[in-house]
Write a structure and sequence with these properties.
single chain; phosphoprotein; Immunoglobulin-like
Length: 287
């Protein structure tokens, strides 16, 4: 099957959506509405849905497939640039001298992206995710959507098991402590500026940090995680709300607005067509 078979159709959708995020949201929304992609099989003999984790694995493997292909093409392009100028090599790159015939005045040099640069780019992407619509406070980072917050709290390498972590979440307070080889430490003991829903909050230990996922009691943008924090610039917040984050009632309202907008557009087009017909008619008073 040709990989570019549907490119023209996808390009039209992408032009309409105007961003990669909303385009992908439309794709996953289609899978949600029209397929069983997000449904879990009740048993191994079920024909509807996927076993737990399989759908995520499919998305992850497809992402890695094209990510690897991109890296391969990038490296191939660099290796094919045999006539590159002999300029200074940036510190993030390493030089590879290729063997050439003895009558060549100078060896040809090819720049390849080093592992250090790739690691730096990965860290930058990771940091951006952990501070999305939030902030880096040194001892923790936080990101937010309109309805929830993720907090990332670094821990020492000796913290390897969840039983070494104690997390307490109250409507207006978060407490995080660890017990390691070097003793007990209180990492966080702060109050929130707004309430959260403790029963719907979760936490996990990643190995590098404790991640706390908070559910906001009210849908609103926070200008700080804790009451003692300096405020962030709320004008820089990405206020786009994904349709997947909407409740069923909000989904219905959005669909109703879309239908009404479509009807208004049809009426407007019909009126315009009728006006043009009248204008072109021999009975039009100003013809």
């Amino acid at each position: 099957m040709e990989s570019n078979k549907h490119d023209r159709l996808f390009l039209e959708i992408l032009k309409e959506e105007r961003s990669i995020v909303t385009f992908l949201d439309s794709v996953f929304g289609f899978l949600y509405r029209c397929t069983d992609f997000f449904q879990h099989q009740n048993d191994s003999s079920g024909k509807v849905g996927f076993p737990g984790g399989v759908a995520k694995d499919i998305v992850q493997k497809l992402f890695e497939r094209y990510e690897n292909q991109t890296q391969y093409e990038k490296q191939a392009a660099l290796l094919g640039n045999m006539a590159s100028s002999d300029s200074d090599v940036p510190s993030a790159c390493q030089e590879i001298v290729l063997g050439v015939e003895t009558d060549t005045p100078e060896p040809l040099k090819v720049k390849t992206q080093s592992a250090a640069l790739r690691k730096m780019e990965e860290n930058q992407e990771k940091n951006a995710r952990e501070m999305y619509n939030g902030d880096d406070r040194g001892t923790y980072r936080w990101s937010q959507t309109i309805g929830d917050i993720d907090v990332y709290i670094p821990v020492t390498k000796d913290i390897q098991k969840a039983k070494q972590v104690n997390v307490k979440i109250d409507p207006l307070r978060l407490q995080v402590a660890t017990v390691g080889h070097n003793g007990s430490f209180v990492l966080i003991d702060q109050t929130f500026p707004h309430k959260v829903k403790p029963d719907e909050c979760l936490w996990s230990l990643d190995g590098e940090y404790v991640q706390v996922s908070l559910e906001k009691k009210e849908e609103r943008w926070w200008d700080r995680l804790f009451s003692s924090d300096p405020p962030i610039d709320t004008k820089k917040i990405d206020t786009v709300v994904m349709t997947s984050d909407l409740s069923q009632e909000e989904h219905m309202k959005v669909e109703e607005l879309i239908v009404n907008q479509g009807r208004r557009q049809q009426i407007s087009n019909a009126y315009l067509e009728q006006s043009l017909e009248d204008k072109n008619s021999s009975h039009y008073p100003f013809s």
